[in-house]
Amino acid sequence: MAVELSYVLFTPYTIRKSRTGGIISRLISRTGLDLVAARMFAPSKELAERYAAGVVTDSDVSHRAAQEMIQKYVLANFTPKAGGTKPRVLMFVFKGEDAVAKIKECVGHILNERTAGETIRDTYGDYINDASGHVSYFEPGVLAPQDAASAERDLKIWAQHSDSEGGLLDKVIDFPQGSNVEKTLVLIKPDNFRFPNARPGGVIDLFSRTGLYIIAAKVHHMSCAQAEEFYGPVLAVLQDKLRGRAAGVAKKALEPLFEIAFTPETEKALGDILGPLNGRENWEDIVEFMSGRRPSTCPADLRNEPGTAKILALIYQGVDAVRKIREVLGPTDPAKAPHGTIRREFGETIMVNAAHASDAPENAQREMGIVQINENNFRTLVDGWFAKK
Description:
The chain has helices spanning 12-16, 20-31, 45-53, 64-77, 99-107, 120-124, 148-160, 162-165, 199-207, 224-230, 232-241, 243-258, 264-291, 321-329, 342-346, 361-370, 377-387; strands at residues 3-10, 34-41, 89-97, 126-129, 135-139, 142-143, 181-188, 213-220, 311-319, 355-357. The chain is an alpha+beta fold. Among the domains are: 1-167 and 375-389, Alpha-Beta Plaits, CATH 3.30.70.141; 227-302, no CATH class. The protein has a 4-stranded antiparallel β-sheet with strand order 2-3-1-6. The chain has a 4-stranded antiparallel β-sheet with strand order 8-9-7-10, sandwiched between helices. It has a two-stranded antiparallel sheet with strand order 4-5. A hairpin with a 5-residue loop joins strand 4 and strand 5 (135-139). Helix 3 (45-53) packs antiparallel against helix 4 (64-77) and helix 7 packs across helix 17 (377-387).
């Protein structure tokens, strides 16, 4: 089986109903594919029409009725509304052996929709006929390509529009005048991507309780330099915080060894020496966890190269976004996090704790700059992949 790129488009309705997390859980855990790119779009009429034009294919006449309904759906729901309101569409790109067929099977066929929940459309799509047999309601939930040729065609189309109509959609949603509207950064951490599983979607699903809007998404591999900058403010905090613990550990080990009792002054001196060293080691652990490379051992020529650890960066927007996200996230230590929070549900340790969220609007801006949320690595991936074919 050939390694392929495929995609899933989350419809505006699916995004509005906060069904994104549940669908991502199924896509990753059931296909075993590698999530390699993500991008938000506010499609223009031209993009919607170009994409819709390829939905009906001559090669798949058995599914012609469904294709025609999807084509009409795209034209009606992806294009800007009267007054200039633009729907949000979210695209996830997956890579792996036989990716197109695996995605297609996981998504399911809308005309064969059941209530058993076997496919994504079984659960999240709707195809309802009235008494006369006419379709009275149609919602596909997500869209995916029928074959490898359509996957290539569609990805190229979206890539061509991804600079002008994709990225950070911070001007798309209208809020009441005077509202305290904020943007905040969430990082779905590398511990969620150690193997294909439902955790990334589960984390996103819990964040949906905030009622906030996802306005940007990016699969990112932090370089060692980026991780150092991102967690730079944490270094001094750790070095100071660990003075007391380091002194206590040293006292307990050394007093019996030398058969002496340390004075408070001696204990403090030990803490002043060992605390910064211990703090630096803990900080390097964090940088290595987030980037896959340790600062003290990372070769100079790799410091600015994408790391080996994967994260999913999401930008949420809404009233009091920072506070709402952090309340659902929970405190740093999973053992101290309240029930129902993300870190209680998915965290393991203070470092391996499922997700990061900015603690203030100004820090969100700083952190968004470090992870280069506006970088269009979606187009870089698509253009590079098909240029090799």
